[in-house]
Specification:
There is one protein chain. This protein is α+β, with helices and mostly antiparallel strands. The chain has one domain. It is built from seven helices and eleven strands. The strands form three sheets. The protein has a six-stranded antiparallel sheet, with no helix packed on it. Strands 3-10-11 form a three-stranded antiparallel sheet, with no helix packed on it. A hairpin with a 4-residue loop joins strand 10 and strand 11.
């Protein structure tokens, strides 16, 4: 798959507008469905999944175990899963880095993407992140999530929508147990300090 930048640069304005509109409509349909009852969801499309697979991208609602101790947190993570545990998983939450770094991370992920007739996923592991120096700016978005703190259905982001979903301003940063809003630009500044 070509890089996000090259696809965008080579696209005509009408193509960009149509791709953006299609992705936005997909996102709006799925965001509405994420809070529906389990009974109604059983009859819905196959974008909802019951488990997290390595190398795939997901959206879900989340309230951290230590919300009161964290400086801020994202209640609507957009995560690529890197490692699974019995109680949760480690993944890239794309929302913790500025959009320009998300593009760089997606470009890297496309380089390690595996496509088969049955499946598409990113072949990336935690060891890769630690050892690849050009991924140093991705470290602030490495987060651990617990299954017991996911409070919605899980939406798998399909490969054809990943670029636009990654760049949509869907992050919902909060602070404290009262879930006070927290500015995404402050999160990006903190992340910039971490990776230099």
């Amino acid at each position: 798959m070509a890089s996000l930048f090259s696809d965008i640069l080579e696209s005509k304005p009408a193509e960009l507008e149509q791709g953006t509109q299609d992705s936005l409509e997909w996102f709006q349909a799925n965001i509405r469905d994420i809070r529906r009852t389990p009974e109604s969801l059983m009859k819905e499309s196959n974008s909802f999944v019951s488990r997290f697979d390595l190398g795939k991208m997901y959206m879900y609602m989340y309230l951290p175990k230590t919300a009161g101790k964290l400086p801020y947190y994202d209640v609507f993570p957009l995560t690529v899963v890197l490692k699974r545990y019995a109680t949760g998983f480690l993944g890239f939450n794309m929302h913790y880095i500025a959009p320009r770094y998300r593009v760089q991370l997606m470009t890297y992920l496309y380089e390690v993407q595996e496509d088969s007739q049955e499946d598409t996923y990113f072949r990336v592991r935690w060891q890769d992140v630690k050892s690849v120096s050009r991924l140093r700016w991705a470290k602030p978005c490495l987060k651990q999530y617990y299954y017991s703190h996911i409070n919605s259905r899980i939406v798998e982001v399909q490969p054809e929508h990943m670029d636009f979903v990654t760049l949509l301003p869907s992050q919902r940063f909060r602070r404290g147990v009262n879930m006070n809003k927290f500015n995404a630009n402050d999160v990006y500044r903190d992340s910039q300090k971490i990776h230099g």
